[in-house]
C-alpha cells in the first residue's frame, strides 16, 4: 500500500498514545485515545489496560514493538470489545502499524498481520467468551 494512502487511512484524533508500564508488563492508558481508521472512530478510554496477549509471541519477536505500540493497544481494545469482526480488527492492526512517523516497515506490518491471523484466534475466542458472560 502506498505511504500516502496509509497516512490518510489512519488519523489520531486525540493526540499521541500515553501509557504507563505496569509491574507485570501490561500498559495502562493515561488518557483516552481516539483514532479514526478508514472513517471509523475507535475510542479507547483512559485507564484501559493493554496486555498484548492478542499478539502471538512470535509476532512480538519478529516486529519492532516500538513501531507497533499504537496498533497493539488498539488491537487489544477491539478484541476486548468486539466492536469489529476479527478480520477487520486484524486489518486495523496492520493499517495502524504502517501509519505515522515511526511506522513499521512493510515486512513487519504484513508479517505481524499474518501471524496475528494465524495465532490470535485463541485470544479472540477468550475475549468473546468473556463478553458473553458480562
What is the 3D shape?
globular
Return the string of H and E elements.
HEEEEEEHHHHH
Number of strands: 6
Strand content: 15-25%
Q: Count of helical segments?
A: 6
Largest sheet: 3 strands, antiparallel
Helix/strand-derived category reads alpha+beta
Q: Compute the gyration radius: what is it?
A: 14 Å
If strands are numbered along the chain, what order do they take across the biggest sheet? 1-4-5
Average per-residue pLDDT, rounded, comes to 84
Describe what you observe in this structure.
The protein has helices at residues 3-9, 57-62, 69-81, 86-97, 106-119, 121-133; strands at 10-12, 19-21, 27-29, 33-37, 40-44, 49-50. With 134 residues, it is an alpha+beta fold. Residues 1-6 have low confidence and may be disordered. The strands form 2 sheets. A 3-stranded antiparallel beta sheet has the order 1-4-5. It is built from 6 helices and 6 strands. α3 runs antiparallel to α4 (86-97).
Q: What keywords describe this structure?
A:
three-stranded antiparallel beta sheet; alpha+beta; 134 residues
In short:
By secondary structure, this protein is of the alpha+beta class.
Write the layout of secondary structure elements.
Elements: H1 3-9, E1 10-12, E2 19-21, E3 27-29, E4 33-37, E5 40-44, E6 49-50, H2 57-62, H3 69-81, H4 86-97, H5 106-119, H6 121-133
Antiparallel strand pairs: 1-4, 2-3, 3-6, 4-5
Helix pairs in contact: 3-4, 4-5
